[in-house]
Amino acid sequence: MTLDEHIYSCSGTEHGLELKRLLQELKHRRETEIRPATRFLGNTLLQQIGHVQSENLEEKKALEWYLAHPSPKSKEEYAMELVDGQMSRETELAILGYDDKARAEVRRKVIEKNAARGYYEDAR
């Protein structure tokens, strides 16, 4: 029985509804996760850090535009540049040899380190 057939066979059950919810959540995660740009995986580390630096400049320009012309559109454009920067950095980690699992482990370690420094505590 395929996964689709299994889901269909229990679609009216609590189990089926939970499976459907989990699949939708996985699909959403896959569509929105930060992942390397495979087009640039052949870059050297120096080429990629150059790309990261160019993304930093684009972020700065978008921020300056947003501050000078605040609007939902300029805010979203700035946010998109920030995410472009994240993806460029994720690509650099992949070029360095970190696969999905290794990148997740590095993120976990950084979160743990930052938590120990109190970075996630309420600033109020």
Describe the protein in words.
It is a single chain. This protein is mostly helical and 124 residues long. It has 2 domains: 1-32, no CATH class; 36-124. Helix content is 73%, strand content 0%. The chain is built from 5 helices and no strands. The chain has helices at 3-9, 14-32, 45-68, 72-95, 100-116. Helix 1 (3-9) packs across helix 2 (14-32) and helix 3 (45-68) runs antiparallel to helix 4. The longest helix is centred in the middle third of the chain and has 24 residues, at 45-68. The chain is extended. The N and C termini lie far apart (54 Å). The mean pLDDT is 90.
Helix and strand arrangement:
Layout: H1 3-9, H2 14-32, H3 45-68, H4 72-95, H5 100-116
**Element string (H = helix, E = strand):** HHHHH
Biggest sheet record = none
The number of helical segments is 5
Class computed from helices, strands and strand pairing:
mainly alpha
Count every beta strand, where a strand is a DSSP E run of 2 or more residues. 0
Low-confidence stretches: none
Helix content: over 70%
Question: What is the typical, i.e. mean, pLDDT?
Answer: 90
Strand content: under 5%
Distance, first to last CA: 54 Å
